[in-house]
Structures are given as structure tokens and as C-alpha cells.
Design a protein that fits this description.
- An 8-stranded parallel β-sheet has the order 1-8-7-6-5-4-3-2.
- Helix 5 (about 155-165) runs parallel beside helix 6 (about 180-190).
- The chain has a single domain, classed as Aldolase class I (TIM Barrel, Alpha-Beta Barrel).
- The protein is built from 8 helices and 8 strands; from the N terminus they run βαβαβαβαββαβαβαα.
- It is about 30% helix and about 20% strand.
- The protein is an alpha/beta fold.
- The structure holds D-xylitol-5-phosphate and zinc ion (ZN).
- D-xylitol-5-phosphate (DX5) binds near residues 36, 147, 176 and 195.
- Keywords: Carbohydrate metabolism, Isomerase, Metal-binding.
Length: about 220
């Protein structure tokens, strides 16, 4: 299914209200829920782990899209799968054995995602195209929400779509997606758009209408 899906990142939501925030954005039209796991080691920020994912799982009716910004990855794959992740995405830069990592993710029954940092070329994904269900093209350096979209990554999206050919692989964009940048990456072949600040700005669980307006604007 190549229709464009919006995946709000709960990194930009109220951390004391994940359940209510998720219900609010889903009611306002979110297609997937993007969950940013950071370890303070692979990226310079810390968020939360599998226990939090398990706690929010019952509040998600759609797809729980877990983006692991952690190293190492392999010791934690089962924990995130058991927490109910539908998609588990690992970074190619997070370790020397990404092929093994993707195999291990698929072995849990979850969909396997491969994330590429802005400094990593599309060619790095070439040996892995039959191992993945999703490629996440980072359009900011991972670690924080609210950063500026890196335009040089758009060309990488087009290259990856060409490389993927007729395989069933989503291309997800993560970082700085807003109503201005979204059309650029969709034209290049992306079909899943993660958005944090551009979805949650101006709204709250008590005033969720802006979430819907923001989603439709993207
Ligand atoms: C960045 C995270 C993103 C982040 C995007 O490390 O992976 O998912 O939440 O935030 P915005 O949309 O604000 O750039
Ligand atoms: Zn993310």
C-alpha cells in the first residue's frame, strides 16, 4: 500500500500523557504512531524503553512504529517485539552486523525497518533490500525533534525508490517534515511521513483539533 501515511512522533507529545495523546492524534487522523527510543549513547538524548512501549501499546489502534536509536540493538529486539511493536527499525550505523539484526527482527514476526543517517549513502542499503519492509531516511541527525530538514537527503529518497524497484518496501521520512517539505519527499517516492513538532504544535489533549489540521496540512 503506497498511499501516504502520517506517523506522528510521540517525542513531541506530552510525556506525562502518552495514552491520551495517542488517542487524540489517532482520532484526528494519524495513520501510524512513531515511537522514538533513544539511549544516550548512539544518540545524545535519552527517551524511554520497552516498558514504556508495552504501557502505551493498548492505546494504539493503528501501527506501533518503533524507531530504535540505540546501540547495541540485538539484545533488545525481543523486548520491543514482546512490547507489541509492529515495525522495529534499527540504524545501519548502530553496529557491525545489521544483516543479522534485520534477520532477528523478522524472526520475531515484526516488520523490519532499516534507518539511514543523513551521512550514510543510499548504496549502503543495496545488500539489504530483500531483508527489509521499510527504509527510514533520516532528514535530520537523530536525537532531537524540531530540527531543520536537510534538503540534500531528498535525492537519496529517489535513489532508494529506484533501487527498491517492485519490492514491497516503505520509504519513511523522519525529521523536519512539515507542509513545505512533505511534498518534496513524496514526489521522490516516500510513503510514510514521520512528524513530531509539525503535528503536535498548537494542540493538546484538551484541544486536539489543531492535531487534525496539522495532519491534513502535511
Ligand atoms: C529524531 C526522531 C524524530 C523526531 C522528528 O531523532 O527520530 O522522529 O521526533 O521530530 P520533528 O518532526 O520535530 O523533526
Ligand atoms: Zn524517529
Amino acid at each position: 500500500d503506497r498511499s501516504v501515511k502520517i506517523a506522528p512522533s510521540i517525542l513531541a507529545s506530552d510525556f506525562a500523557n502518552f495514552g491520551a495523546e495517542i488517542q487524540a492524534v489517532e482520532a484526528q487522523g494519524a495513520d501510524w504512531i512513531h515511537v522514538d527510543v533513544m539511549d544516550g549513547h548512539f544518540v545524545p538524548n535519552i527517551t524511554f524503553g520497552p516498558a514504556t512501549c508495552a504501557a502505551i501499546r493498548p492505546h494504539i489502534k493503528t501501527v506501533m512504529d518503533v524507531h530504535l536509536m540505540i546501540a547495541p540493538v540485538d539484545p533488545y529486539i525481543d523486548a520491543f517485539a514482546n512490547a507489541g511493536a509492529d515495525v522495529i527499525t534499527a540504524h545501519i550505523e548502530a553496529g557491525p552486523h545489521i544483516h543479522r539484526t534485520l534477520q532477528a527482527i523478522r524472526a520475531t514476526g515484526a516488520k523490519a525497518g532499516l534507518a539511514l543517517n543523513p551521512g550514510t549513502p543510499a548504496e549502503a542499503a543495496a545488500p539489504l533490500l530483500d531483508m527489509v519492509d521499510l527504509i527510514c531516511v533520516m532528514t535530520v541527525n537523530p536525537g532531537f525533534g524540531g530540527q531543520k530538514f536537510i534538503h540534500s537527503c531528498v535525492q537519496k529518497v529517489a535513489q532508494l525508490r529506484e533501487m527498491i524497484g517492485d519490492r514491497e518496501v516503505h520509504i519513511e521520512i523522519d525529521g523536519g517534515v512539515d507542509p513545505t517539505t512533505a511534498p518534496l519527499v513524496v514526489a521522490a517516492g516516500a510513503d510514510v511521513l514521520v512528524a513530531g513538532s509539525a503535528v503536535f504544535k498548537g494542540g493538546s489533549v484538551d484541544n486536539p483539533v489543531p492535531y487534525g489540521e496539522n495532519i491534513r496540512a502535511i
